[in-house]
């Protein structure tokens, strides 16, 4: 039976983030939880109603019948009849059975491959003028290379799955722990997870080695946040810690069906005939890890693909770049051209065929293709004959060349770029797919997560306002950036009392070291500090000294506030279930330190609906007081009458803090009488023990006491941005890229970060669409979900129409004011409705910046898809947690932030970088170069194949449209594979219009990619015109010159002499034409071009010098030797390429001088600049921090490089590393080309020696 549970099922899924849908059924309360959207139940109900009408479906909607599942803990036999899924997961794209059909399907999605399949079939018929091998072999090679690449990439995913599924975990077997792999885990098993290990499935938390049944969980893999979350087991299960005791546990779990809501969970635990309600506090999710806890014991609830993180997964998308899809249109245009050419030839054949041409021998019995009695059949058969004859118009080697170029670009250029190497985490950039390189050069919209992507998730107490007085003299990153933009210099001299530690970066001598006692109202300061020290759920850890203690908090904000209280002299260092102990300094008099124990009577916890947190505590002297902290909008509406001056001043300070990009909270307190408290506490206990609507009743009871508050002041916390984020966003904005921030954080926080990142400023017109309105609150108070949905939708519709009208006025005016849109998740849910989606899209596209707050991962993906599909713009999503996976997969390009914040986003991404600022290099340098190079490769392929095929087409007119070949079969087969293959690959790898530093110095150059300047139909038409022109030159010059020519024996030239001459001219000309198209030319270009031409001559010398029986090689036997013995050959070989290329040369000169591209202007500006070594000098500091292997790689990067001989720009050639390295004493691996280099150096040395 165990084999049944050991099976590894293969499914196409990727690890993902939170979705918006979840079970709304309750089994006794406990739903909701920190991080859920406001009014979660209403949102979920409304979204479920809207789900059927959505056209964009992302993530999976899981079946919810039956309505709940029953799990018998520690009893596999009882769970067996239900048939719960195993714990094995798969993220692969293929399996053994689907690889070949699905892989071939992927390949034949490409129009060219499908076309060549048809041509290969046609070439096996008698009507084909060419041998089947001519088409079958190239197609087979193309498919083989592509399938090998797909198999290699999927094999890496499979290896990763094996590693994850084989991770050991301790499972209770009898009365002892036994280690088994994750994949053998089953629902109902009791497991032990040790410190720093990941949870193997979704677990019900039973017991912990920590007191009070508490454990600390890191959710970095889910949401990118590195701060620890606190989870608490039910008191009834605390004893089931040791295996002997755990073996006695036979509980029954009734819970919701598997769903994709990360932050909600409802269920009951039935143990000893007692029913206990379960909440998200008892749920440990797969993908999270255990921290600061020796080990925990839990029961498996959801396994494998039914875990919440996997339920958020989306099928692995098969992404194709926009350029590749446009290439399909070009291929279709070539099809149309091919059809017209064949139609002309077929009609011509039907008209031409006639018995009057007696020398054709059309008397008596002739085959159908040349039977004058049935001209229609002649036309049809000739049509198919010409299709196979002109098949070279579609370049079969194009896709292989492009994939080779992309692969080398990814592995050698992107992955090894030291400008995208992060020293602190030792993390290089990683291209996880090579299909989307050029897409990086056309991105117009970036969708970014906030926490861990734009910010470091590092909160620091920075400023505060106490009793109407502002404290803190520091300069925020937002203020510093604004001053730099205005050309101001800020003096940031710090005082002697300035203190900087983790969570605290404050500078104001008026408050530090007890100086607050000298302020105007020290009693208010004392209340402020006590509120910071008491109103929280932080747990102290470690040594009870200020220097060594660490705080475990549910959010980094809380830890920062408690750290601030410590630095102000109110050191919280001990907590029990009922007391908090604070070491207070300078309270009675300066220098006096005393430990004070405060009794914590009630904690009214923070959630996204309340937006505040309160504690009721009793002082040692019996004073009862309620301390409250929360958002300013919530606190101000609960303040008592009076104190208008403090309220006004504090509000002004809050606005200043907000404009400086700081996160703000208001602090208030209220003294309570014993009678009032006792009456209220009875209601609180009743609400807390309620099994139905517990959260709602607790909120209602809290409102009864959280009123008539007295304002103390406000705090301002800085969420540190990642290094270089504002500059990166400013550069990307100049490049024409619009950046949207999609975050699960509250609106105030998101706006602050947007200010800090330079996304929003006070000069912008801001449109705010929020669900925090009186109308919606009133509807929510009535509790009717249908009414809430109706009211919210009407409000969103009205706001969208109003904002759109205002936006049109601004856009049509002359103010030039930029627009910004801020919208929260609840409003966004209705705005994404099909009836309102168009209005949202129109408004969003008119805004320079968009910030979406409190959004679920599913909404992130829907917004991305809205712009991707609705506006047809190229999108890029960047994030660092599993909640960003759907968004990453929905965009054209997905970028994961790697490093310290987990790997879920990276595993689902197309590219991985360590810091947001590396987007500058990834897009403006590598993306832009890749786009330019591949555009040139594609248009050049189009040109050279059209040129070659048109010469065959002109020949058809002189053969009575019979389908006679102009070229030998092998000429046609090897034209793309050998004679013109290498130079175009060299261009695709190394062509560089401007250097990397100039690409970042002039970000406006990137707009050419957004506008697709280099792959427009106009560009294709220019190449097509010159292909048409050159084909005429090749055909008619060679044929006209040969009419009067003769060989050394006096015979005139025949068909194969002329065609060989024409083919020689084509090979020489198209290779030289590529040099004209290059922006930078190195010796690799010369080697590849000359090598291709030499390869043709070597081939023709051998091929025409040998004749084998039973083939058609006798056609060109000895042809090249005859040709090269005539003046005609050399005259034609010199004249034809010059005449053919003269038109291109003239066009390029006129275009560059009178209609230049932006990059050509930059080239002219910097054409006399010396070689740019600045980028290498920037890397010198990196070299001091590298490992020996990294140092060697860095040393190699510093070796001499070649310089472009075409435009004068610096060009980093990959050649001769080992030669130069040996000269400088650096070890570098050998390269094939170095052998030739050393051989030539050796021969030269010997020659010099012999001369001497």
Automatic annotation (TrEMBL):
<feature type="binding site">
    <location>
        <position position="854"/>
    </location>
    <ligand>
        <name>ATP</name>
    </ligand>
</feature>
<dbReference type="InterPro" id="IPR006539">
    <property type="entry name" value="P-type_ATPase_IV"/>
</dbReference>
<feature type="binding site">
    <location>
        <position position="884"/>
    </location>
    <ligand>
        <name>ATP</name>
    </ligand>
</feature>
<keyword id="KW-0460">Magnesium</keyword>
<dbReference type="GO" id="GO:0140327">
    <property type="term" value="F:flippase activity"/>
</dbReference>
<feature type="domain" description="P-type ATPase N-terminal">
    <location>
        <begin position="71"/>
        <end position="135"/>
    </location>
</feature>
<dbReference type="InterPro" id="IPR023298">
    <property type="entry name" value="ATPase_P-typ_TM_dom_sf"/>
</dbReference>
<comment type="similarity">
    <text>Belongs to the cation transport ATPase (P-type) (TC 3.A.3) family. Type IV subfamily.</text>
</comment>
<feature type="binding site">
    <location>
        <position position="449"/>
    </location>
    <ligand>
        <name>ATP</name>
    </ligand>
</feature>
<feature type="transmembrane region" description="Helical">
    <location>
        <begin position="1015"/>
        <end position="1037"/>
    </location>
</feature>
<dbReference type="GO" id="GO:0005802">
    <property type="term" value="C:trans-Golgi network"/>
</dbReference>
<dbReference type="InterPro" id="IPR018303">
    <property type="entry name" value="ATPase_P-typ_P_site"/>
</dbReference>
<dbReference type="GO" id="GO:0005783">
    <property type="term" value="C:endoplasmic reticulum"/>
</dbReference>
<feature type="binding site">
    <location>
        <position position="880"/>
    </location>
    <ligand>
        <name>Mg(2+)</name>
    </ligand>
</feature>
<dbReference type="GO" id="GO:0016887">
    <property type="term" value="F:ATP hydrolysis activity"/>
</dbReference>
<dbReference type="GO" id="GO:0000287">
    <property type="term" value="F:magnesium ion binding"/>
</dbReference>
<feature type="binding site">
    <location>
        <position position="449"/>
    </location>
    <ligand>
        <name>Mg(2+)</name>
    </ligand>
</feature>
<feature type="transmembrane region" description="Helical">
    <location>
        <begin position="1052"/>
        <end position="1072"/>
    </location>
</feature>
<dbReference type="Pfam" id="PF16212">
    <property type="entry name" value="PhoLip_ATPase_C"/>
</dbReference>
<feature type="domain" description="P-type ATPase C-terminal">
    <location>
        <begin position="906"/>
        <end position="1156"/>
    </location>
</feature>
<feature type="transmembrane region" description="Helical">
    <location>
        <begin position="1084"/>
        <end position="1104"/>
    </location>
</feature>
<feature type="binding site">
    <location>
        <position position="883"/>
    </location>
    <ligand>
        <name>ATP</name>
    </ligand>
</feature>
<feature type="binding site">
    <location>
        <position position="663"/>
    </location>
    <ligand>
        <name>ATP</name>
    </ligand>
</feature>
<feature type="domain" description="P-type ATPase A">
    <location>
        <begin position="166"/>
        <end position="227"/>
    </location>
</feature>
<dbReference type="InterPro" id="IPR023214">
    <property type="entry name" value="HAD_sf"/>
</dbReference>
<dbReference type="GO" id="GO:0005524">
    <property type="term" value="F:ATP binding"/>
</dbReference>
<feature type="binding site">
    <location>
        <position position="606"/>
    </location>
    <ligand>
        <name>ATP</name>
    </ligand>
</feature>
<feature type="binding site">
    <location>
        <position position="884"/>
    </location>
    <ligand>
        <name>Mg(2+)</name>
    </ligand>
</feature>
<feature type="binding site">
    <location>
        <position position="558"/>
    </location>
    <ligand>
        <name>ATP</name>
    </ligand>
</feature>
<dbReference type="Pfam" id="PF13246">
    <property type="entry name" value="Cation_ATPase"/>
</dbReference>
<keyword id="KW-0547">Nucleotide-binding</keyword>
<dbReference type="InterPro" id="IPR059000">
    <property type="entry name" value="ATPase_P-type_domA"/>
</dbReference>
<keyword id="KW-0472">Membrane</keyword>
<feature type="transmembrane region" description="Helical">
    <location>
        <begin position="376"/>
        <end position="400"/>
    </location>
</feature>
<dbReference type="Pfam" id="PF16209">
    <property type="entry name" value="PhoLip_ATPase_N"/>
</dbReference>
<feature type="transmembrane region" description="Helical">
    <location>
        <begin position="1116"/>
        <end position="1142"/>
    </location>
</feature>
<dbReference type="InterPro" id="IPR036412">
    <property type="entry name" value="HAD-like_sf"/>
</dbReference>
<dbReference type="GO" id="GO:0048194">
    <property type="term" value="P:Golgi vesicle budding"/>
</dbReference>
<dbReference type="InterPro" id="IPR032630">
    <property type="entry name" value="P_typ_ATPase_c"/>
</dbReference>
<feature type="binding site">
    <location>
        <position position="744"/>
    </location>
    <ligand>
        <name>ATP</name>
    </ligand>
</feature>
<dbReference type="InterPro" id="IPR001757">
    <property type="entry name" value="P_typ_ATPase"/>
</dbReference>
<feature type="binding site">
    <location>
        <position position="451"/>
    </location>
    <ligand>
        <name>ATP</name>
    </ligand>
</feature>
